């Protein structure tokens, strides 16, 4: 088993996966982002030296850059945690073949070294180093300093996998990294431990005395060995075969009975949300959404900008609606075939989802009442936005769901998990948030704030009045695309 | 009970199923056998209106299945694990199915209690989610769920696969009992010739999407089927 066999396998896995053709839109988006970052890093690398020289003529740009290295490392770590994943390889079929386990692990780890995230810094630091050379800095020192950057980048790379492997098993998995990075930042900010100086001195040390490069290299080797041991211990079948069996805490949810004939579906939906990793972690997004207003409202710059009120209002009261709603009916994709062969009324199925979304809007509105502290206008805007969410957005998102063709694996985490996200979900986000913000913003700007509120609320009320008709229409859409959905959901991504 | 007329299903011009006429009377235990790709699951999927026929149709109790949904109240099925809801416990799943089929808790409990020996103490009261059960136990739960709500037509795809010998024998008893005593039409597919000949009054052999044998089960049927399948293998 040689390296080329591994590469060959992965190549086929990538191009032959069922979702390859379907998710091409998403891939283009990713490539676009990658290009964007590459270009901006390149521009930064080119402009850094002359820019700093100009802004701080009496300081050495090289020293300033070293002073910022701590923040760069912190930022890189956070970004990687959310975006970079350890390269996955389906090892199960390999275990019984004559391949050494060590080889598989080495391969996976080495491959991670070729991640996009490790090349990205080069775009900035290569031109910067060249600039340094042009400006007469000693060649050997700059070379080793640059080498130091590469080694540190790889250290972050492997450190990230260790952090991830510790946090991936837990709920709220992003808390540890945020606490870790936050406390480092705080210690530094309040001058308790000056990491800024520490890191800066370390890089200067390598620059002045290239022999010190062995220290980061030793750390790198250490981290590699830790990663190696961790991965190898996971390479036995019983750890992946024996899935964790969780005890059930069943509750009868009698209170849903008052919703009448949609009760069984509501119970199912609530269990769906609470018992599966992915929808459950989108529940935690609710807290984030609720705090979203704090980004804007305390800022006097936005105090008189009704467009922002409308936008934040829609976002805060509708975050669950958008998060949960955009994956109707993909949440049920795992057993969609069964539902379709059962004696169910599609209308009840959709009404249950609708009721959940409405309840969430009302709850989010109530929770957002404290924002009245920043002015009654905000409360009024949130109220109008809530009505709009109930009367318009809920239907729009369910209608969008009838175009949903992507299966969801319920056990995946949510943050930056784009499984089940198709081009439709990206497009549907625009009318959901921007349209009401625009309607409100324009009427409020040209006529008056009150008329803006009225416009949003009236649209919402119209939707509520047309409830029966709209639900019928949407139900028909779902029925029309039944076979296509069954077919799409039964395919493994 | 079930009439199939001029039914074909084609994907991209390749016909995978072509049945000119097939009638299954009420209360018959009907077995479908054939090699991989013969069209067994395709036929069952058409019967449940999970895929659309290219031509023709299937009528279930005088209801055309791809035109009306009125066949659903008296038809139930277990095709594969995708019929289970992984994050429910077996009990919750049974009650959910029961509610969809208009049964209250007591009705469901009544049905389940008849199958306690079938479950072998590994399904009920385990405080486990369906996704955490073994393949065989998942299958047991799915099969029993298909019996809830007094269906008149029951469709089971490969019910014997993955089951342990004891359960296989019990399941055979259950299926026979349903067809003989309760007048339920049971459709079963299997790769195991011995099991189908044991259970089914009638066996249809599919090959490349077409019916090539239609047999009343008798003492010689198993021999005939074995001869047929070993014969086709040699060609």
Automatic annotation (TrEMBL), chain B:
Q: What PANTHER family does the record point to?
A: ABC TRANSPORTER ATP-BINDING PROTEIN ALBC-RELATED
A Pfam family annotated for this UniProt entry: ABC_tran
ABC transporter domain location is 2-233
GO molecular function annotation: ATP binding
Q: What is this protein called?
A: ABC transporter ATP-binding protein
- Is Transport a UniProt keyword of this protein? yes
Q: Which UniProt keywords apply?
A: ATP-binding, Nucleotide-binding, Transport
- Matching SMART domains: AAA
InterPro entries for this protein:
AAA+_ATPase, ABC_transporter-like_ATP-bd, ABC_transporter-like_CS, ABC_Transporter_VariousFunc, P-loop_NTPase
């Amino acid at each position: 088993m040689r390296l080329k066999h591994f590469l060959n396998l992965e190549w086929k896995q990538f191009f032959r996966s069922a979702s390859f053709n379907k998710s091409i839109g998403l891939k283009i988006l990713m490539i676009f982002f990658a290009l964007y970052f590459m270009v901006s890093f390149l521009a930064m690398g080119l402009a850094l030296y002359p820019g700093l020289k100009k802004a701080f003529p009496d300081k050495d740009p090289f020293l300033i850059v070293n002073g910022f290295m701590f923040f760069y490392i912190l930022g890189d770590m956070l970004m990687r945690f959310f975006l970079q994943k350890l390269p996955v390889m389906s090892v199960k079929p390999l275990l019984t073949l004559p391949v050494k386990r060590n080889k598989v692990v080495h391969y996976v780890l080495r491959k991670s070294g070729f991640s996009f995230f490790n090349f990205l810094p080069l775009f900035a630091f290569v031109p910067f180093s060249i600039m340094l050379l042009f400006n007469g800095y000693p060649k050997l020192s700059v070379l080793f300093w640059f080498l130091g950057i590469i080694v540190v980048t790889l250290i972050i790379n492997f450190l990230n996998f260790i952090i991830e492997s510790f946090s991936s098993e837990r709920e709220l998995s992003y808390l540890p990294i945020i606490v870790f990075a936050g406390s480092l930042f705080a210690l530094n900010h309040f001058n308790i431990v000056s990491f800024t100086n520490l890191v800066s001195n370390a890089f200067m040390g390598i620059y002045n005395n290239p022999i010190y490069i062995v220290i980061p290299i030793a750390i790198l080797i250490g981290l590699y060995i830790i990663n190696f041991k961790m991965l190898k211990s996971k390479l036995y079948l019983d750890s992946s075969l024996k899935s964790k069996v969780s005890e059930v805490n069943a509750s009868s949810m009698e209170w849903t009975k008052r919703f009448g004939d949609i009760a069984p579906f509501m119970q199912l939906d609530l269990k769906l949300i609470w018992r599966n990793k992915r929808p459950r972690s989108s529940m935690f997004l609710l807290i984030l959404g609720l705090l979203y207003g704090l980004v804007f409202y305390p800022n006097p710059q936005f105090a008189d900008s009704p467009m922002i009120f409308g936008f934040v209002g829609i976002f805060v009261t509708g975050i669950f609606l958008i998060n949960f709603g955009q994956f109707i009916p993909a949440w049920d994709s795992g057993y969609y075939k069964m539902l379709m062969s059962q004696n169910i009324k599609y209308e009840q199925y959709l009404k249950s989802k609708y009721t959940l979304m409405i309840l969430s809007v009302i709850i989010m509105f109530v929770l957002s009442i404290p924002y009245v502290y920043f002015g009654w206008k905000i409360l009024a805007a949130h109220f109008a936005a809530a009505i709009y969410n109930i009367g318009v957005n809920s239907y729009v998102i369910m209608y969008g769901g009838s175009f949903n063709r992507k299966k969801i694996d319920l056990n995946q985490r949510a943050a930056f998990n784009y499984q089940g996200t198709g081009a439709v979900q990206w497009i549907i986000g625009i009318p959901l948030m921007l349209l009401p913000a625009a309607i409100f913003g324009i009427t409020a700007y040209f006529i008056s704030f009150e008329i803006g509120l009225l416009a949003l609320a009236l649209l919402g009320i119209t939707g509520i009045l047309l409830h029966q008709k709209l639900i019928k229409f949407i139900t028909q859409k779902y029925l029309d695309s039944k076979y296509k959905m069954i077919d799409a959901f039964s395919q493994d991504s | 009970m079930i009439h199939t007329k001029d039914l074909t299903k084609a994907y991209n011009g390749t016909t995978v199923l072509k049945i000119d006429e097939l009638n299954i009377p009420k209360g018959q235990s009907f077995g479908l056998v054939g090699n991989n790709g013969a069209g067994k699951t395709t036929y069952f999927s058409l019967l449940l209106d999970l895929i659309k026929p290219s031509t023709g149709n299937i009528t279930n109790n005088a209801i055309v299945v791809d035109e009306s949904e009125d066949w659903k109240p008296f038809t139930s099925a277990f095709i594969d694990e995708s019929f289970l809801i992984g994050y429910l416990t077996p009990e919750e799943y049974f009650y959910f199915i029961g509610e969809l089929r208009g049964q209250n808790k007591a009705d469901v409990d009544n049905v389940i209690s008849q199958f306690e020996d079938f479950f072998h103490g590994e399904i009920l009261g385990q405080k486990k989610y369906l996704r955490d059960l073994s393949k065989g136990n998942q299958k047991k739960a799915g099969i029993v769920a298909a019996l809830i709500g007094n269906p008149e037509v029951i469709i089971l795809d490969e019910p014997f696969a993955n089951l342990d010998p004891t359960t296989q024998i019990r399941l055979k008893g259950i299926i026979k009992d349903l067809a003989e005593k309760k007048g339920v039409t049971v459709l079963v597919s299997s790769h195991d010739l011995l099991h189908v000949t044991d259970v089914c009054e009638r066996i249809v052999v599919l090959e490349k999407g077409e019916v090539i044998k239609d047999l009343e089960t008798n003492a010689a049927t198993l021999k005939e089927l074995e001869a047929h399948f070993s014969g086709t293998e040699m060609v």
